[in-house]
Design a protein that fits this description.
Blueprint lengths: L10 H19 L4 H8 L3 H14 L17 H12 L14 H12 L5 H10 L16 H19 L1
Helix pairs in contact: 1-2, 1-3, 2-3, 4-5, 5-6
């Protein structure tokens, strides 16, 4: 399953679950009890009862998979174009620093593909395609090591004392 990555069920898993529902439909026609079917198929009795209601209303066709809940709004080709845009760095798109944020990626998608996404939608899109939130591998060019050392020497001990 791909739930942890926000992508729903894989096609194989969808087919497996559809197969379970269709096996249950055959057994509904034979008049078997829901508890027996649930035990044999290793699913909950509530699921079998829900499938039975659906089967009563629409027959075995009603238990077939409806397909994915939603189709991706960006095609694979468009996502490849988006990756190419993200590889150009934020400065190429008008931002001064070198950070990609969800809001910035959302803006690039809007400008390039004329689609609106929420920040969470952008996050799910990126995670689904193998991207992750990361700390940069190298330090920013604007970093002032002396200021950081001064802060660590003077400000941090005061903050640490307040916490304790």
């Amino acid at each position: 399953m791909r739930y942890p990555q926000g992508g729903g069920l894989t096609a194989e898993r969808q087919q497996f679950r559809e197969g379970l529902r269709l096996q249950a439909a055959e057994r509904f026609a034979q008049g078997e009890a829901s508890s027996v079917i649930a035990k044999d198929l290793r699913v909950s009795v509530r699921s079998v009862q829900r499938w039975r209601r659906t089967w009563d209303e629409g027959g075995p066709r009603a238990l077939r998979s409806q397909g994915p809940a939603s189709l991706p709004r960006l095609s694979e080709k468009q996502f490849a174009q988006l990756e190419a845009e993200l590889a150009k760095e934020p400065a190429a798109h008008g931002w001064e620093d070198q950070r990609w944020t969800l809001a910035r990626v959302k803006t690039v998608i809007g400008r390039r593909f004329h689609l609106t996404y929420t920040a969470q939608g952008v996050r799910k899109l990126l995670v689904r395609n193998g991207w992750s939130c990361q700390v940069p591998a190298r330090r920013a060019m604007e970093r002032d090591d002396e200021a950081v050392a001064g802060w660590a020497r003077e400000v941090w001990p005061c903050a640490e004392d307040l916490r304790r």
